[in-house]
Amino acid sequence: MKSIKGKILAAFSLTISLCIILGAFSIYSSNKSLKHSQNIIEEELPLLIESEKLLYNLSQRTAFARAYILYGDESYKEKFLQYTDDSQNIQEKLLSLSDSEEAKDLIEKSVDWRTMIVERVFTQYEKGNPERAKEILKNEVSPISNDIMEGFKGLASEQEELIQASGETVMASGKSVKVTSIIISIAAVIIGTLLAIVTAQLITAPLLKIRDRMKSVAAGELDHDPLEHKSNDEIGELTASANQMQKNLRDTIEKTLAVSESVSNQSQSLTQSAFEGQQGSKQIATTMYELSEGSESQANRATEMVRMMEDFTGKIEQAHLDGAAVFMSSSEILTLTKEGTILMRSSVQQMKTVDSIVKDAVEQVKGLDSRSQEISQLVQVIKDISNQTNLLALNAAIEAARAGEHGKGFAVVADEVRKLAEEVTHSVGDITEIVGTIQSGSKNVVRSLEDGYSQVDEGTKQITRTGQTFETINHSVDDMSTKIQHITDELNYISTNSKNINLAIEDIAAVSEQSAAGIEQVSASAQQSSSAMDEITRHAGELESSAAQLIEQVQNFRI
């Protein structure tokens, strides 16, 4: 079973993963560009500079050698020797930076060239053969000098091409980082938005259905079809509980309505029987009055009175049986009402459980909002790295400016690196905006859950009021059961007295001389019976009124 908490965590985990991937890719690409830049600064650019220096040194020594031969000024020779010493340092740096055979051959040729000038050209000139020195310088030394210079130019050109290729690699990497960052950012926005919409819909839609159903149940509408639920999470369990509560409540109301109608019908029958018993009592009183008028007709009418009393006794016994049946029905109503009360208490407890679940979901979404703020801190770290890259690019541009003409190519590369760092900074700003959107979505989800929580709380209050109504019905049915028991006792008492009356009338028929005493006894019994029948009639009316009130309460529910 995948809970609401699991769904929300899965959605935010995916969004966080996309942001982490974007950050990791940006860091990796920045490090890669930095390595290329460091390679240019530390290896390729120094090699180019040293090659250019050696080429410049060689051209200067050639010029000073020619000037010395042409003008004979010793300062030119000293400058030649000074540049020669400088060339040795340059050659050592060049060999330390590059181990190519071409560079070694060029350095060996330059050493031979220097030896040829010092030992042959300068020697011939100092011996007084300036023409021979010029001839050697022109025909032998100059071609070698040109070859060496062309070689160093070629070496410098190769280094420039390598630096340019490295720069193009850095720019291509920067473009790749830009495109990939844009794609991942767009994907993160789309996926984050979709996940927020889907997650909110999965949580709020079922809660709104349950809220509407609880309102319908509170209004007494129990004839709706059960709510559909496909998930097995907390909302699925809540939906199943709501359906079961509606079914149990509808069954209880149907049984209560049936029993109430039965009680109403039987109370009407009891009222009719009591009315008939009351009429019989009045007839007995009339008969007793007639007996007091003349004892002569007493014996003749005693037989008729015996028959009337037998009929009366049968009706009284029937009324007694009806009262017992009504008592049994009221007991059954009382049992069903108590069951309904228990079910309502269970429903109230279930609504409190739902309240706790929704409240916990609100707390979980607030925790995820805190995690998104941690992502914002991570994005800030990426932004700081981008700023450092921008600073390194600025330092590289300064160093390229110091190199003069030899550093122009690297200055272009440094400027591209700086632009790349700025683009990464803009991408980090986009990520920050995305994270802000996600945080806003989280807050909207929190507000939706809090609204659902208020609706569940309202449903809980309505269920509680329904439970209180059931408690009132329970007390009414209990009171009705007590009154029915009292009516049954009265009917039992009347049945016993009716049998005594019947025996008294038979005694009157058998013993006419005791008619006066028997008439008084029958008259007293008749009066007592009339009072009892009045009491039965009153209780029957109260029973019918209670049954009508119960039916009215139950009919508030639409099943």
UniProtKB/TrEMBL annotation:
One of its GO terms (cellular component) is plasma membrane. Residues 201-254 form the HAMP domain. It comes from the Bacteria. Residues 273-523 form the Methyl-accepting transducer domain. PROSITE patterns: CHEMOTAXIS_TRANSDUC_2, HAMP. InterPro entries: HAMP_dom, HlyB_4HB_MCP, MCPsignal_dom. Keywords: Cell membrane, Membrane, Transducer, Transmembrane, Transmembrane helix. The keyword Ion transport does not apply. The chain crosses the membrane at residues 182-208. One of its GO terms (biological process) is signal transduction. It is found in: Cell membrane. Belongs to the methyl-accepting chemotaxis (MCP) protein family. This is Methyl-accepting chemotaxis protein.
